[in-house]
Amino acid sequence: MRGDFKHFQTMTLDDGLLLVGFDYLAKSVNVLNAESLSEWEGIVRFAQESPMVTGVLLLSLKEGIFCAGADLERLHEAQQQGAFQEVEQLVDTAHRTFDMMERSSKPFVAAVEGVCLGGGLELVLACHSRIASSHAKTCFGLPEVKLGIIPGFGGTQRLPRLIGVPASLEMMTTGKTLFPRQALKLGLTDATVTSIPSSIRTLQEIQKETLIQVAIAHARGLSSRAARHRPRPSQRWLSAPGIRSLVCRYVKGQVVKRVRHFYPAPLNAIEAVEMGMRSDVLEASLAIEKPRLLDLLAGPVSRHLVSLFLAGEEVKRRVGAVPEAITHVGVLGAGLMGSQIAGQLAEKGYTVMLRDVAQGILATAMGRIQHSQAAQVRKRIILPSDLRYRMMRITPTMHTKDLSTVPLVIEAVSEKLDVKRAVLAEFESQASPDAIFATNTSSYTLADIAARATHPQRCVGLHFFNPVAKMQLVEIVRAPFTSDRALAQACGLAKRLGKFPLVVRDGPGFLVNRILARYLAEAVIMVAEGVSIRRIDRVAKDFGMAVDSGRPMGPLELLDLVGLPVAMHVLTSLAVLGSRIESRDALLRMFVSGKKPVTFWSSGKENPQAVELVRQYRRAQSAPSGAVSDDLLHQRLFLPMVDEAVRCLNDKIVDHPWQVDFALTYGIGFPAFRGGLLAWARQEMTPEQITQALEALSDTYGKRFEPYPGLSRGGW
Ligand code: NAD
Could you identify which of 343, 388, 412, 653 might form a hypothetical disulfide with 333, taking C-beta atoms 3.0 to 4.6 angstroms apart as the criterion? Predict the structure, then answer.
């Protein structure tokens, strides 16, 4: 084939099979935008018209990435300018091209290795067959709902026709990705091939890969007419017209239960599927999918979600180059956090030395890791042999000397300053001179922990959030003495674990816990005032707290999850910030005075024990109670967080307001559809109005609400 393509390489085999390698120029990932799509349209048209071409095999020349979907930077620009003509044209080109592929008399086959998401999946859905590599990065998904939109290149129409309505609705409304074995089971792909990626990424070299060999043989034996979209029998039955509307109604109910009506996209996706299944793919895509997509793109929710997504990319980009690739890591402490961190490290291919003080603790930790990793076997994400390899990568030990050769140690021992300092001293005496000490402390400053260190430049904070597998944020704490190398290694490790490494300056509570403490402390004060546990958490959930995790949660339920002893530790350590971190210590002490701390909630209900303790406390304190509106509760929970965030910016804990928004969304579940804490505050009120509201709260409830003097100036 002749053609001067920037983003594709082409080669025709002897029998006329056209190999097309996607390799977006000057980007690390393949994306679909006006340029790449119009080139692909040219290739499809040529293949269709040329008598020499017998079929097309599409593959990627980038390792680990097939296609990441639409170019989000362009979408973001369109949203910022409120101009969507280019997007509309892109959608039209995609529909025209994908329809041409689907109707082609020549077979189109995709050999998918690596990430295949959004528009990338829609592209391969228009092929007649898909062969997947079992490469660790291969996955399929339509994550558009996470950006507040629905698939716009025919995905809402082709996916249900291929794998059935229930499975496709699950993918579209949750953004969940499928791994190769799951995709094969659902009929999204026709085969999975174990293949080793070639190191030279040219069409000539890549042809030798098993994946491409299998895909070529498959394409040669395929007739486009024979390759029909046929969901599996169970999915077919559930996709039949009468049942389909019941399924859609059921999924709608599930969505509303999970994210209420905060997010319009999943409900739009369900409607597009339900209505579209009655017509032809192209007709439904144009008449149902496209107007919905454009409406959602122009709305505030999608604008916020796309901004937060790009903020995440920026956080990862800022990490820069990592000086050395580490493969061996030590973890000190095999408790709640240490065991989870060790599991994550082993999952990502690190070998781990896991140290604790007793065999029993280590055995429990290994059991916990095995149990949580085994969930991936049950879900067909990994094979039982993968699980065995992961577990073999972790060596439990009681001896610090076994960690003497590791280049980086993550400290997750009990939250006691003397224990942490002792562990650091032991590390310094045994580790190699350039090994790095990364602490997971949540309530001490890095300066506290390293106060007696001989080589403080090796110390850095690596603050994971609980549960480690789920929480994507990691605060990388930098003190003035932390070396650039220690910082880079910590960032690199977090990034390789698939986390967002946000660099924050050392200080009490760092960024997230410092702001969170104001919210949690105020909730406890409300309990002490006699406001019901249910009502406090309801006000926060009505606002959308933690809705994105699929489990909306108020501050008191969050306190139960963190554990009151840990939370009290954090609140106490933040007392250095002055009168604004006030809590009701006497009440909390009553909650933790027994053998096991009393929780606010028990089996989904207010814990009667907690209610009784509050009653006793209030009687002893003769605490007055007054009527308080939901609006006031809402202000008391959220405005102090805004105040603290502005103080953090002033203290240069981070440099930019978007970093605060990103951190709170990914660290504590501030609702993403609101764009983050400061973005929300800016939309709701002017800086003067927030200052006045805090002053009014301060007059009624005390000094803790006194606004930061710089808050009214704005600029945040
Ligand atoms: P944990 O009590 O569950 O585990 C601590 C472990 O450290 C215990 O198994 C203990 O036996 C072990 N240990 C004590 N001294 C040791 C020593 N000298 N050498 C090796 N091991 C030793 O505590 P956790 O909740 O896992 O917290 C660990 C760290 O993580 C703390 O610094 C905490 O602030 C931080 N953190 C906790 C959370 C959370 O939600 N729990 C979240 C983020 C950070």
Answer: 412
For ligand 1, the distance from its centroid to the CA atom of residue 474, given in whole angstroms, is 17
Do the Cβ atoms of 113 and 133 come closer than 8 Å?
yes
DSSP run (H or E) holding 272: helix 264-276
Please work out whether the CB of residue 439 comes within 6 Å of at least one atom of ligand 1. Answer: no
Residues near 567 by beta carbon (within 8 Å), at least 6 away in sequence: 520, 559
Query: What pLDDT, on a 0 to 100 scale, did the predictor assign at position 481?
Result: 98
* Catalytic residue, candidates 128, 463, 569, 656: 463
Burial zone of 274 (CB within 10 Å; 0-12 exposed, 13-18 middle, 19+ buried): buried
Residue located nearest, by CA, to atom 32 of ligand 1: 441
Q: What's the CA-to-centroid distance between 669 and ligand 1, angstroms?
A: 23
Is the Cβ atom of 337 under 6 angstroms away from ligand 1?
Answer: yes
**pLDDT given at position 226:** 57
| Among 415, 466, 558, residue to substitute to test ligand 1 (most atoms within 8 Å of Cβ) | 415
Mean pLDDT of 119-132: 97
Identify which of 336, 399, 474 to mutate to test ligand 1's pocket (most ligand atoms within 8 A of the CB): 336
- In the reported structure, the alpha carbon of residue 416 is separated from the centroid of ligand 1 by a whole-number distance in angstroms of 9
In angstroms, how far is the first alpha carbon of the chain from the final one? 55
Q: Provide φ and ψ at 94, rounded to 5°.
A: -60, -45
User: pLDDT tier at 281 (50, 70, 90 boundaries)?
Assistant: confident
Kindly tell me if the per-residue pLDDT of 2 is higher than 60. no
- State the pLDDT confidence band at 566, using cuts at 50, 70 and 90: confident
**pTM of the predicted model as reported, rounded to 2 decimal places:** 0.92
Which ligand 1 atom sits closest to the C-alpha of 339?
26
Distance CA 288, CA 272 (A): 6
Quote the ligand 1 centre to 521 CA distance (angstroms). 23
> Burial, 521: exposed, middle or buried (Cβ in 10 Å; 0-12, 13-18, 19+)?
buried
- Quick check: 424 pLDDT over 80? yes
Write down the mean pLDDT value for the chain: 94
Measured distance CA(152)–CA(288) in Å, rounded: 10
| Alpha helical stretches, state H, 299-353 | 300-317, 336-347
Q: What is the DSSP string of 492-506?
A: HHHHHTT-EEEEEE-
pLDDT at 623 exceeding the cut of 80: no
CA dist 434 and 427 (Å) reads: 11
Any atom of ligand 1 within 6 Å of the Cβ of 30: no
DSSP secondary-structure letter at 711?
G
What would the two tokens of residue 211 be? 């994946």
Residue 462 in contact with ligand 1 by CB distance below 6 A: no
459, 453 contact by CB (below 8 A): yes
Strand extents, DSSP E, 576-686: 601-602, 605-606
C-beta 420 within 6 A of ligand 1: no
Q: How far is the CA of 365 from the centre of ligand 1 (A)?
A: 12
Of 615, 648, 661, 646, nearest in space to 710 by CA: 646
Q: How far is the CA of 471 from the centre of ligand 1 (A)?
A: 18
Average pLDDT over residues 59-84: 95
pLDDT one-digit tens code per residue, 218-267: 999 887 665 555 666 666 677 777 888 999 999 999 999 988 889 999 99
pLDDT at 96 over 90: yes
- C-alpha distances (whole Å) from 228 to each of 127, 332, 434 are 10, 55, 60
512 lines ligand 1 (CB under 6 A): no
| Whether the CB of 466 sits within 6 Å of ligand 1 | yes
Share of the chain above pLDDT 70, in %: 98
Amino acid letter for position 16: G
Structure confidence at residue 92 (pLDDT): 96
Residues in the chain, overall count? 716
Instruction: Say yes or no: CB of residue 419 within 6 Å of ligand 1.
Output: yes
Which DSSP state fits 708? P
Does the annotation count 656 as an active-site position? no
